[in-house]
Task: inverse folding
DNA sequence: TCCTGATCTCAACGTCTGTTGAATCCGAGT
DNA sequence: ACTCGGATTCAACAGACGTTGAGATCAGGA
């Protein structure tokens, strides 16, 4: 009721607005929970309490909004050394613990989920996800260890990490979603550790 | 040029038609490569060389077409005993070898890919995938082994299996897509085997 | 031979989509 | 005080979507 002049008004609102950030937040939420195709500009604008054309005014295109919204909230270059630093021992566990913590912390508006949900049937998003996983994280990890075929090892890790996201957050497999985090850290940590270090030859 | 009377004609075509199967094939292809939302009835009808309303005539609804098209081409009850039968030794490898063989064999029109691609942002498809993976396959495997927390073990296996599909077929991680199949059977087989048999307690 | 019912197309509907253009409003710099 | 330009909304477009209803055509049984 602080709005003195009826319902919707045109033109600029008083104050600093912060509307652009509100749109980005709404976009993160929608893209993360519905993927690129199903998330609509109108719904995002609605969540942000704003007209759809304002979204276009700021970002020009739904695609550009997606790229802006899926920017990762933390810089892998900052955090990966912190994980790799202590050495090979327990590296798998540290990676998994970091991932699960990040997922719980980010909740609904998780760019990783948005990328996974959009990669499906949207090659551009698949490329974004591939590049993020590969160049930003796994290549750094693979470079830190000393083993043969580092890129295949990175892909193996990626396949289990993406599988964790799919199974826990998207398919919501019940026992997996309910499992104690440290149990998962132990089990998946050993898997990642093996992918990084064990011999890869068949038999 | 066997069509003697001009271009498009109404009414029933001569012969046994087999059109229903053609529509199902086209639907499998589209749903598998684009997911439920992005695949359109019009495109499916176009692939089958048919009018969109004929699709509705046969299946009533896009949703019903999806369910019909994603029916699994093999019966898990037939094949799972064949995989589990030889015993615990090498069970993980046999499962992975079967999965990878199936993926290569089915190619483009793979219901598993369709379900994965649709599960994302489409809770009904997620439930279908969950039920298929769980009840049709993993519960049978989990029941065959003797270990604690069989359902959690089944979910762990599912997370790696879904991750393989995502990483190889959808994200198309290059080294993973190019890797020798028996190498993957060895590496992933050990993972599945561990998920089925190793102790799960943290630490 | 005629009738019935399944197969098939055409045209259209209402809705939702991303995007555009013009019009308004207002804070800030001069 | 006066402009300038960014912020914001409204109204509308053109295209795609799933779905519908009516009609045409033909195969097969009576």
Result:
């Amino acid at each position: 009721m602080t709005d003195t002049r009826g319902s919707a008004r045109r033109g600029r609102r008083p104050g600093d607005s912060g509307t652009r950030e509100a749109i980005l937040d709404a976009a993160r939420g929608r893209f993360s929970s519905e993927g690129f195709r199903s998330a609509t500009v109108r719904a995002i604008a609605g969540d942000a309490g704003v007209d759809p054309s304002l979204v276009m005014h700021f970002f020009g295109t739904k695609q550009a909004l997606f790229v802006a919204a899926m920017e990762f909230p933390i810089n892998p270059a900052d955090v990966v050394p912190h994980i790799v630093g202590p050495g090979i021992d327990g590296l798998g566990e540290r990676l998994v613990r970091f991932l699960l913590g990040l997922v719980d912390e980010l909740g609904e508006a998780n760019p990783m989920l948005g990328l996974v949900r959009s990669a499906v049937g949207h090659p551009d998003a698949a490329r974004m996800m591939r590049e993020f996983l590969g160049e930003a994280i796994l290549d750094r990890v693979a470079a830190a260890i000393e083993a043969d075929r580092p890129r295949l090892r990175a892909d193996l890790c990626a396949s289990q990490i993406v599988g964790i996201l799919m199974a826990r957050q998207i398919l919501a497999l019940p026992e997996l979603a309910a499992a104690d985090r440290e149990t998962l850290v132990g089990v998946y940590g050993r898997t990642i550790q093996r992918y990084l270090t064990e011999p890869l030859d068949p038999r």
Summary: Residues 142 and 150 of chain A are 5 Å apart (CA to CA). Chain A has eleven helices and no strands.
